[in-house]
Amino acid sequence: MHHAHEDAELLALVRRYVTPERRYLKLGGGVLRMPGPERDRFVRALGEDARLVTPDEIATLLKGGWRERRTATWLIAVGRRTEFRERIGELLLASEVCCVGSAYCVALAGFGTPRDAGLLGAYLDRYLRRPDLAYDQVVVMGALISTDLNLGDDQAARFLGPGGMWEQWLHDAPHMQPTVDPATCLSPIRRLCAFVDECAETE
């Protein structure tokens, strides 16, 4: 992982894409709570930057910390940069830094192909076996269910059956409620994907 204060190229990109108006803090649930005029400005600016940012700039941002990776992943999602699919899958599975998992999920759910569903499933295969880790299991499940709905597929089913990995994880994870209806995982990711679509459609 690179640190902006030690990398002049990364620092310049942070100042260009990450920190203006504290963008990195707003990406995620915060975008859904913005008042109208602020939201409109944010949508236009994010859409424009997603068109302007280069693949090399994205790759550099993805080497940074959580702020850089979150911003880069949203730019990937809005710009439909599917060439970064595998890299996002790797970063999600590695879970090296906090506060980025939902961004990875928004991008993969937005791409919405069987390969994206496979990457989300790989994460659940690994981390539903770790009830000691409160990572991104819930948001990843929401993204997988969303992708299934769009594809007419049911890759989430292997996790959700009675006595399956989801039920066992909920039972064994001390930080979770006794039951979490998988359907409640779906709404946030669908709303964020709709926001991505709105940004992508700006001119």
Topology:
Layout: H1 8-18, H2 23-26, H3 36-52, H4 55-61, H5 66-79, H6 85-94, H7 101-111, H8 114-127, H9 137-151, H10 157-160, H11 165-172, H12 186-200
Annotation keywords:
203 residues; mainly alpha; 64% helix; globular
Any overview of this molecule?
α8 packs antiparallel against α9. This protein starts with 7 loop residues before the first helix and ends with a helix. The model has no long low-confidence stretch (mean pLDDT 92). The protein has one domain. By secondary structure, the protein is mainly α.
Q: In a nutshell, what does this entry contain?
A:
The chain has 12 helices and no strands. The chain is mainly alpha-helical. The protein has one domain.
The secondary structure category is: mainly alpha
Query: Low-confidence parts lasting 5 or more residues at pLDDT below 50?
Result: none
Into which percentage range does the β-strand content fall?
under 5%
- Main beta-sheet annotation: none
- The first-to-last residue Cα distance is 34 Å
Shape: globular
The number of helical segments is: 12
Report Rg: 17 Å
Q: Please indicate the count of domains.
A: 1
| Helix fraction bin | 55-70%
Strands, total number: 0
Order of helices and strands: HHHHHHHHHHHH
Mean pLDDT metric: 92
